Amino acid sequence: MLRDITIGQYYPAPSPLHRLDPRTKLAGTMLYLLSLFMTDSLVGYGIATVFLFTVIKISRVPFRFMVRGLKAIMLLLALSVSFNLFLTPGREIFRIGFICVTYEGLFTALFMAVRLIYLVLGSSIMTLTTTPNALTDGLEKSMGFMKRFGVPVHEIAMMMSIALRFIPILVEETDKIMKAQTARGADFESGGLIQKAKAMVPLLVPLFISAFRRALDLSMAMEARCYHGGEGRTKMRPLRYGRNDVRAYMVVLLYFTAMLLTNLLPV
User: How far apart (Å, rounded) are the C-alpha atoms in residues 91 and 89?
Assistant: First the structure.
């Protein structure tokens, strides 16, 4: 289960999407995620589906590898669908005791499930096709205008990049600790949900110790390399937009415009 988390990982592949400027991918991802909250129509979700699967195909990231990340949100997905399915008032389909399923609840639960799945897949594409260094540079460059207001843009971008990079590392560390404790007789599988949650508590202490140790090692390595923030630092590979970035922006804007137009269609 823990190894199925794909957000924060980088998957190298010789694809046009990997070669795009990270700012292009950041802007495209933000517009795509925003578009998912702008429509509740079948036409809109159809357009979003075609766009998403086209981008996945272009990225050359195996679809099975990308779908693995959905396993980590199955509990959240089940809770979200259940609440919308059983608690949304409207025209009744059937009732079993106090449990009532309505047409409005069914459609809301369906849209909510698709939206959550697409949010995870859309975010995963960006991290799977962008290295942590490129992501840091893209974030810093995109938020550069905030420096005028005294916002430490470089430090914020660095922290966000490190946080994303540490997700797969901490997941791998948690998996190692679980295997070590299982070999010593710990049981993480049997019992109900509450019992499984209690069994995870002994993982927290060694996991936090490992996380702080890694953070200390990282800080010492950065100090040893005379890191002192973003002021006066130059880039070995400065970011520059290319023709493919312009084309990508045009495609994303066309998609976003199409999603806006779906709101004008009759429901």
Answer: 7
